[in-house]
């Protein structure tokens, strides 16, 4: 727990930390930003939904069925995420047994798995004919690239 | 096995507590808003009695409010509840950083620096997290009195969680119908400890008396006031509310004095309870979506 005084802000990702730093103001690495959490979460979940929606629409033709599945899609993706967490946790348990994964929580491994999956789905969206779907893929890959650049920049200026 | 296996999966069963622990150690922070959103929808339908209790309380706290809008408010209350228990689990398991601000800091300083006192609070915000924060920030041990859990395994799990989050500085005592607890609390206050009690809903078989709250007559526990009367310890109303993602606000109000005077005991206790309900009304009216009194108070 930290006692919040002054205008100190905390972001987990490097990109918002660099942006905040360039805009002036004290910033550090911490999971304290609601905008960051909600923004990235909605984007990750949204990309999965859009990818699954595109796949579904190519398989299902009748309009009422399409509507039905599209309404149920977010719930289906939520359940798919729950299953994914469980499956990845099994992999982590195996890695722990082999002494390959020492961190206390599974979050870092899950983060890498989810980011990799989202990047894969965003790359697949680039192939779509629909412009906005394609632009969603570009947005993700662009943000990912900028975040990696921000990581490099922060390591050069020795900020964690 | 003392209870049927399926009871583990009931809303208050231990399964969901274990699942929450799994969630906070496996779901990256940025996916929690989405996950909690859907879990809240699930529990909005699955936890029918809790939802109905919130609706029944909202009807009184927000008079004249639309029943349809109150359904959305009940969902929001459950959403905040999900966040607060998730954050408490996160703090316990991963020692995740949370930011907090203080309102009425002078009263908290007074509470922490004085001898034995009663911290009177409500089922609001992250009560568990608040106790751990208080113990850590002010380096004081705190004894929390809780209503007993319906499920024994859940109770054990919660005890362990609280003691773990408070790094040994938070002790849990259960409000059951025995004479042992009042004596234990009396001795604790006299020994200079801080005793934290939730005073916003009665516990079956525990001492209570009627008082006005939001224009209705309700029964509230009078145990904290009796303790204050006997020990002459001040009562500090303290609440913790969630202000935004990983941000909390600890609200402390001026202490309520309930010590011995020339007047008779009943009058002193009644006056102190009225002061408490006035404070409670102000806080609940301002933070109705974080009043997790999941039983109908006004019926």
* Beta strands of chain A, count: 3
Oligomer: heterodimer
Largest sheet of chain A: 2 strands, parallel
Question: What's the overall average pLDDT of chain B, rounded?
Answer: 88
User: What percentage of amino acids of chain A are in beta strands?
Assistant: 5-15%
Secondary-structure class of chain A: mainly alpha
Q: What's the tally of helices of chain B? A: 10
Q: Please list the strands of the largest sheet of chain A in the order they lie side by side.
A: 2-3
Distance between the termini of chain B: 36 Å
Radius of gyration of chain B: 19 Å
Bin the strand percentage of chain B: 15-25%
The structural class of chain B is alpha/beta
| Spatial arrangement of strands, main beta sheet of chain B | 1-9-8-2-5-3-4
Percentage of helical residues of chain B?
40-55%
Count of β-strands of chain B: 9
Shape of chain A: globular
**SSE topology string of chain B:** HHHHEHEHEHEHEEEHEEH
Distance between the termini of chain A: 19 Å
Helix-strand topology string of chain A: EEHEHHHH
Can you tell me about this structure?
By secondary structure, chain A is mainly α. Chain A is built from 5 helices and 3 strands. A two-stranded parallel ribbon of chain A has the order 2-3. The longest helix of chain A has 35 residues, at 63-97. Chain B is an alpha/beta fold and 299 residues long. Chain B contains 10 helices and 9 strands. The longest helix of chain B has 28 residues, at 67-94. Chain B is globular. The interface between A and B is medium-sized, with 35 and 32 residues.
């Amino acid at each position: 727990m930290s006692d919040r005084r002054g205008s100190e802000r905390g972001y987990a990702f490097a990109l918002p930390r660099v942006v905040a730093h360039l805009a002036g103001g004290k910033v550090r690495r911490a999971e304290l930003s609601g905008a960051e959490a909600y923004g990235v979460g909605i984007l990750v979940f949204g990309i999965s939904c859009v990818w699954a929606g595109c796949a579904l629409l190519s398989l299902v033709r009748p309009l009422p069925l399409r509507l039905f599945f599209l309404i149920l899609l977010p719930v289906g993706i939520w359940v798919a995420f729950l299953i994914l967490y469980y499956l990845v946790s099994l992999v982590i348990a195996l890695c722990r047994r082999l002494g390959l994964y020492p961190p206390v929580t599974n979050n870092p491994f899950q983060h890498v798995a989810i980011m990799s999956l989202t990047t894969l789905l965003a790359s697949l969206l680039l192939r779509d004919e629909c412009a906005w779907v394609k632009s969603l893929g570009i947005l993700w890959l662009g943000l990912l690239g900028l975040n990696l650049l921000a990581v490099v920049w922060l390591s050069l200026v020795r900020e964690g | 096995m003392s209870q049927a296996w399926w009871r583990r999966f009931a809303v208050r069963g231990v399964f969901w507590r274990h699942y929450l622990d799994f969630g906070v150690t496996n779901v990256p922070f940025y996916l929690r808003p989405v996950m909690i959103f859907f879990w809240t929808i699930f529990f909005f339908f699955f936890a029918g009695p809790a939802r109905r209790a919130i609706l029944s309380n909202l009807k009184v706290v927000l008079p004249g409010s639309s029943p349809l809008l109150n359904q959305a408010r009940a969902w929001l209350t459950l959403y905040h509840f999900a966040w607060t228990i998730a954050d408490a689990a996160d703090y316990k398991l991963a020692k995740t950083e949370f930011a907090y601000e203080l309102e009425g800091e002078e009263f908290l300083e007074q509470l922490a620096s004085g001898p034995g006192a009663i911290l009177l609070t409500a089922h609001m915000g992250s009560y568990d997290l608040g106790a751990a924060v208080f113990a850590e920030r002010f380096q004081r041990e705190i004894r929390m009195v809780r209503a007993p859990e319906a499920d024994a395994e859940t109770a054990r799990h919660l005890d362990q969680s609280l003691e773990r989050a408070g790094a040994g500085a938070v002790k849990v005592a259960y409000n059951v119908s025995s004479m042992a607890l009042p004596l234990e609390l009396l001795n604790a206050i006299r020994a200079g400890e801080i005793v934290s009690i939730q005073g916003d809903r009665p516990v079956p078989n525990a001492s209570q008396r009627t008082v006005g709250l939001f224009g209705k007559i309700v029964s509230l526990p009078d145990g904290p006031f009796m303790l204050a009367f006997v020990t002459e310890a001040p009562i500090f109303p303290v609440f913790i509310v969630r202000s935004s993602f990983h941000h909390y606000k600890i609200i402390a109000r001026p202490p309520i004095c309930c010590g011995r005077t020339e007047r008779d005991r009943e009058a002193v206790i009644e006056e102190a309870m009225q002061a408490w309900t006035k404070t409670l009304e102000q806080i609940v009216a301002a933070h109705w979506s974080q009043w997790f009194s999941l039983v109908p108070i006004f019926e």
